[in-house]
Design a protein that fits this description.
The structure holds two protein chains of two kinds. By secondary structure, chain A is α/β, with parallel strands linked by helices. Chain A has six helices and 13 strands. Classes of the chains: A alpha/beta, B alpha/beta.
Chain lengths: ~260, ~325
């Protein structure tokens, strides 16, 4: 069973967001980690490998710093990695990223592709599903459970108000939701071994394409920061009953939300 | 030239999701400006009666696709049917709710159409150059991105509770067009075997008008009934912080925050929640925030409109009684 995990390096979710002088999100001094949901994807891939054998390949896109995130996944137990690193990509939207990842994935044998249901930075939840479409294979998004048997898989997917069970042919893409598993920590041995594992760095030319062919369909975004929410009032009073009464009154008469 | 704004209406057992009507209401105001026809497209089974409702919310035209294979949502069949309809009509924009269905369907559809998409938008305006400009929270609401597409149609999903429902006009007539679904084997490689809906009388978290959430201060799973009793008096959904979910007190599907649900209710009542940035990311677009916390220094008070310093186990039951009196 060969498994590909598409992984994104993101800011730590505790990071404070500031804009630089050009109005872009400033990454200086920010702690970078594997996107939370992609960690679940890595873990699930490793569990499948333990059960069925085969290889786990990490595929990612971005600059040199992304190697840190990839090394962490290799230390968890993934076998090798492919990083598309091409400075000619000025702005890649979700469509471009999916198309580029599809080209990179096509260089690797795969039965299952796993990735997070969304990235905690741009929160767009598009790339995993788009990747499946670009490869013309089925996808099941936001999965909580995955069972694989022969050339079929059964996945439990989170829907609004419940879950659904989906059966799909393989190969297929699955996007991981929190609850799928508990990601392992890399062991000392894993960290040592990861240093020797190969990260193949590819450019768009290596993939037979170019930045012009992979042009974004969305215009580059303009960023802004939200205006800070102001602290309101702390309701004064001696007794909890008085405070509760006053709160109910304010919600009804002032805020008009009850 | 391409014309029209399409809203993909999400329905479940012939009941329309509120977010679909919210989008229709906002799209109506844009269509009034641009002169584009507003088209509501509904896929499913037993949906003919829904045409009246979407017309009342402003649709000029209703496209109905009725088929047994569309009774329940599936990625392949829905993508295939919509792709063909959209290619035939070439609208300017295709809008969906940012729901479990919308998040799964919209990117697949956008990729098949070869177009750009804006996800989980909390703003949408007409823009002469790009037709529509969207505002969307990123980094869990710690920043915003303003995005537009250089391809048509632009696909977008809109966050529930973002736009107000418009006035219904029962007299408004819409042209109703019935289309047939052509679904082939490749569309059915992934099939839904079973749908398990958790029995709950409470509203769905992402669409709820009021949410009452509990965090670390809940102290244990058994105490959520304090919040549930209050929720049932005011028709609220119950939520939780990551701390409470990670402690195993409440299921993950109730988690509000950067690694949980993102919500925008009219009223958010945070009980025993300190206000970690992780949590704020999921609820800071709420219109009114109430914090109930023992710790007067809890960060949540810095963003709450109304705060009560006190033990939630004292305050919440009293508040429940006060809410009962208001009814």
């Amino acid at each position: 069973m060969n498994i590909v995990v598409c992984l994104k390096q993101t800011f730590d979710t505790e990071a404070k967001i500031v804009l630089d002088s050009t109005g872009k999100i400033d990454s200086a001094g920010v702690n970078l980690v594997i996107n939370t949901y992609d960690e679940f994807a890595v873990e699930e891939a490793l569990k499948l490998k333990e059960k069925f054998g085969g290889e786990v390949t990490i595929v990612s896109m971005g600059g040199d710093r992304v190697q840190e995130a990839i090394r962490t996944a290799l230390a968890m137990g993934a076998d090798q990695a492919v990083l598309v690193n091409d400075p000619s990509i000025a702005y890649a939207d979700e469509a471009a990223i999916a198309d580029i990842l599809a080209k990179a994935v096509a260089t690797i044998p795969y039965d299952i592709i796993l990735t997070g249901r969304m990235a905690v930075d741009d929160g767009s939840s598009q790339v995993g599903v788009r990747l499946a479409e670009a490869l013309d294979i089925p996808s099941v998004s936001s999965i909580l459970k995955l069972d694989v048997e022969d050339s079929k898989a059964t996945a439990t997917r989170e829907i609004d108000g419940g879950t659904e069970i989906i059966e799909t042919t393989l190969p297929a893409v699955f996007t991981a939701q929190k609850g799928l598993n508990e990601p392992r920590y890399p062991s000392m041995m894993g960290i040592m071994k990861a240093k020797k594992k190969e990260i193949k760095v590819l450019t768009l030319a290596d993939l037979g394409t170019s930045a012009a062919d992979m042009a974004a369909k969305m215009n580059a975004p303009k960023f802004s920061l939200p205006s800070a929410r102001k602290a309101g009032i702390k309701i004064a009073g001696e007794e909890a009953a008085d405070k509760a009464k006053e709160l109910a009154r304010l919600l009804r008469e002032e805020a008009k939300v009850i | 030239m391409a014309k029209g704004i399409w809203v993909v209406i999400e329905q479940n057992k012939a009941e329309i999701r509120k977010v679909s009507l919210e989008i229709l209401s906002q799209a109506r105001t844009i269509a009034d400006k641009t002169g584009d026809p507003l088209v509501a497209v509904i896929l499913g089974k037993g949906i003919a009666d829904l045409a009246k409702t979407v017309a009342a919310y402003g649709a000029d035209k209703v496209v109905l696709v009725e088929d047994d294979k569309l009774a329940d949502y599936s990625t392949g069949a829905y993508t295939s049917v919509l792709n063909k309809l959209i290619r035939k009509d070439e609208p300017q924009a295709v809008l969906l709710g940012n729901t479990a269905v919308g998040k799964d369907l919209a990117p697949r559809l956008a990729q098949r159409l070869g177009v750009g998409m804006a996800s989980d938008c909390t703003g949408m305006e007409y823009d002469e150059a790009n037709f529509l400009t969207f505002k969307r929270p990123i980094y869990g609401g710690k920043a915003f991105a303003e995005v537009s597409s250089n391809t048509r149609p632009v696909v977008a999903t809109i966050r529930p509770n973002t736009f107000a429902l418009g006035q219904q006009d029962a007299a408004k007539q819409a042209e109703v067009v019935n289309e047939t679904a052509e679904i082939d084997a490749a569309d059915l490689r992934a099939i839904v075997k079973e749908i398990i809906i958790a029995a709950s009388e409470r509203p769905e978290l992402i669409e709820a008008n009021i949410i009452i959430s509990g965090g670390r201060g809940m102290k244990g799973p058994e105490n959520y009934k304090v919040l549930e009793e209050c929720a049932d008096v005011i028709g609220a959904a119950v939520g939780a912080s990551r701390a409470a979910v990670d402690a195993g007190w409440i299921e993950q599907k109730f988690q509000v925050g950067q690694t949980g649900k993102t919500v925008s209710p009219t009223l958010y009542i945070a009980c025993g929640i300190s206000g970690a940035i992780q949590h704020l990311a999921g609820m800071s677009s709420s219109k009114v925030i109430v914090a109930i916390n023992k710790d007067p220094e809890a960060y949540i008070f810095n963003i709450a409109d109304y705060g009560i310093v006190g033990d939630l186990f004292d305050v919440v039951p009293l508040l429940t009684e006060e809410f009962k009196k208001l009814k």
